[in-house]
Secreted protein
Amino acid sequence: MAGTSSGIVAGLTAAAVGTVGFLAYQASANVPPGLGGKSGASASPSAVVSRAPRDRGHPGALPTGSGKGERVVYSVDDDRVWLVDDHNRVQRGFGVRPGSVDPPVGLYWVTSRSHTATGTDGVPVEHVVRFTSVDGVAIGFSAAVGAGADTTMDVKTGGIRERREDGDAMWRFATIGVPVVVIR
């Protein structure tokens, strides 16, 4: 009887591992058609949780373990963004100023865009590229138009602010469905 029980457990374990592998494969597949993403846009979920060391000698270098293919990479610890083409070449890298609410580390997709809007801090912004929300606060990239207001700590903001020229580049690059990889 013991041999039969261990065989059943081994079979169930193998089935569970196969199911998890299949789900991981599906999660790394192309952007769902309903999002209207670019064909072939994908990123590896396993790369998102990678904590491979970065080359601190080159702060502009794309961190290893940040995925593959076309994507936006955002480091919450370094306050830096990289726009990466489908050949894993950095098209542009730049520093940003985050809001008071950070997105969790993970894999997201650009879900909405607005040419102009007003940030939760009352500052007019342009080229808003949103990819998630945290506790009801929209998280996305944007560029302030004109002089920015002083943000009070009482206001929860999810705007990751860019310089206007970086915002223009983000707007051209990050269309609906493009993956956004958030790393530490």
